[in-house]
Write a structure and sequence with these properties.
Elements (H helix, E strand, L loop, with lengths): L20 H28 L2 H7 L1 H9 L12 H28 L1 H20 L4 H29 L5 H26 L7 H7 L2 H13 L4 H6 L3 H12 L5 H16 L3 H5 L5 H16 L2 H14 L4 H29 L1 H27 L10 H20 L1 H12 L2 H33 L2 H20 L12 H5 L23
This protein binds beta-D-glucopyranose.
Beta-D-glucopyranose binds next to α7, α15, α19 and α20.
InterPro entries: MFS_dom, MFS_STP/MST-like_plant, MFS_sugar_transport-like, MFS_trans_sf, STP/PLT_plant, Sugar/inositol_transpt, Sugar_transporter_CS
Family: Belongs to the major facilitator superfamily. Sugar transporter (TC 2.A.1.1) family.
Subcellular location: Membrane
Length: 513
């Protein structure tokens, strides 16, 4: 992914420009891409707990759940086709990343968004009208291909459109729209599950068509980014567009920087080989570990399977879906906290505070479930206060994730890569995220069945590990201009040995003037 739009000058000068109504509206429409992603994350868990859906597509799970009161509750949803339904989407997203990155670079961000939207619509329709498991899975694959395109192009589009001063907040704005999508999906699941006749799941799955249409139509009316125009040699057009976006006439400095950045990135012939050079070891390490760790927090266990999990611990169907709505609300609220705090308190503080809070709540959830369910998974009658305590700790956990690893898992990689490796490193980040999302989605129900409440300890262990990693290895990046970023590695006790730089602490290609 060419990320020339993230280049922000030499750190000493400011580009004139305002947060115009035009750019705000444009970004809101583009952020709809995040909404679709979130809708998908949130919809599958609720749908898979609906009786009518299970009866139609996964009858063995339904039978097991209804008739088999004897066996362990930890295992009642353990079914490979059921998990494949959820996880197939991430595999597809992973595969389409490569094509999407090419289309985004060669044909512009708009076309990539359009393709994403169209694939999405197709997937949503196939799912909504599904009469066989294969239609469900193919539909999920189409949705996944769509996500590959929109997740590649939308964040890039936002970064390129946003005035640089608002870039951090806008970056997390994409995450915010993901969380809103998750919330909307949980609320809809709650209501659609009540529709008499049990066909509400069709509306839940088919409902993805609405945000998909918004991004499809949006991509047709959205303007192209100046960066994208420059990359394709349309300089005059780009300048006019930049004036309109920024709401000022004096855009010369920014224009020159964009042209220089575009030229510099064209000079790089082997971004992948570059990435393997010794001086990029800290960047490569972060590109691999940050997204992997983000998924190893276990967040998607809650996002995908909250209703399943709540049913497992004995909630009625309704209460389980309602609890998913509550965690969804917490997720949105805490993301707003992150937007507010990320440039004030810094990334390290949020990472470490969030890590500690997640650790404590995971141990508490494990203890609460372990105490009642033991290892045989048969708790008897559960008191109401018990359920409330479990949901409370899950909310504390979700809040911690939503102001730390959630947004920062995307923000930090995007701001530490120097221009010459940004494209390749960003693809590594996206792919690692999708691979780990797939693995967690695929093995969670099996892990719950075998590791029982110990599953929460498993994730707690990783949260402890990643917090130590952040403490020891991640330098603070708050308030550091992107081209000056090499300095933070040069003054780091460990990474300094890998990184060279000139006397200003910049990497050669990062200087675009
Ligand atoms: C993660 C998703 C997760 C979502 C939850 C994102 O940052 O990448 O996997 O489901 O946050 O809000």
């Amino acid at each position: 992914m060419p990320a020339v739009g993230i280049v922000i000058g030499d750190g000493n000068r400011e580009y004139p420009g305002k947060l115009t109504l035009y750019v705000t509206m444009t970004c809101i429409v583009a952020a709809m891409g995040g909404l679709i992603f979130g809708y998908d994350i949130g919809i599958s868990g609720g749908v898979t707990t609906m009786d009518s859906f299970q009866k139609e597509f996964f009858p063995s799970v339904y039978e097991k759940q209804k008739n088999d009161q004897e066996s362990s509750k930890y295992c009642k949803f353990d079914s490979i086709p059921l998990t494949l339904f959820t996880s197939s989407l991430y595999l597809a997203a992973l595969c389409s990343c490569v094509v999407a990155s090419y289309v985004t670079r060669e044909f512009g961000r708009k076309l990539s968004m359009l393709l994403g939207g169209v694939l999405f619509c197709a997937g949503a329709l196939l799912n909504g009208f599904a009469t066989a498991v294969w239609m469900l899975i193919v539909g999920r694959l189409l949705l996944g291909f769509g996500i590959g395109f929109t997740n590649q192009s939308v964040p890039l589009y936002l970064s390129e459109m946003a005035p640089y001063k608002y870039r951090g907040a806008l970056n997390i704005g994409f995450q915010l729209s993901i969380t809103i999508g998750i919330l909307v999906a949980s609320v809809l699941n709650f209501f659609f599950s009540k529709i008499p006749g049990g066909w509400g799941w069709r509306l839940s799955l088919g409902g993805a068509v609405v945000p998909a249409l918004i991004i499809t139509v949006g991509s047709l009316i959205l303007p192209d980014t100046p960066n994208s125009m420059i990359e394709r040699g349309r300089f005059k057009q780009a300048e006019t567009k930049l004036r309109k976006i920024r709401g000022v006439d004096d855009v010369e400095d920014e224009m020159n920087d964009l042209i220089a950045a575009s030229e510099a990135s064209k000079l790089v012939e082997h971004p992948w080989r570059n990435l393997l050079q010794r001086k990029y070891r800290p960047h490569l390490t972060m590109a691999i570990l940050i997204p992997s760790f983000q998924q190893l927090t276990g967040i998607n266990v809650i996002m995908f399977y909250a209703p399943v999990l709540f049913q497992t611990i004995g909630f009625a169907n309704d209460a389980a879906l309602m609890s998913a709505v509550v965690t969804g609300l917490v997720n949105v609220g805490a993301t707003v906290v992150s937007i507010y705090g990320v440039d004030k308190w810094g990334r390290r503080f949020l990472f470490l505070e969030g890590g500690l809070q997640m650790l404590i709540s995971q141990v508490a959830v494990a203890a609460a479930i372990g105490a009642k369910f033991g290892v045989d998974g048969n708790p008897g009658v559960l008191p109401k206060w018990y359920a409330i305590v479990v949901v409370l700790f899950i909310c504390i956990y979700v809040a911690a994730f939503a102001w730390s690893w959630g947004p920062l898992g995307w923000l930090v990689p995007s701001e530490i890569f120097p221009l010459e490796i940004r494209s390749a490193a960003q693809s590594v980040t996206v792919s690692m995220n999708m691979i780990f999302t797939f693995i967690i989605a695929q093995v969670f129900l099996m892990m719950l069945c075998h590791m029982k409440f110990g599953l929460f300890i498993f994730f707690a262990f990783f949260v402890a590990l990643m917090s130590v990693f952040i403490y020891v290895f991640l330098p603070e990046t708050r308030g550091v201009p992107i081209e000056e970023m090499n300095q933070v590695w040069r003054s780091h006790w460990y990474w300094s040995r890998f990184v060279e730089g000139d006397e200003n602490g910049r990497v050669e290609m990062g200087k675009v003037h």
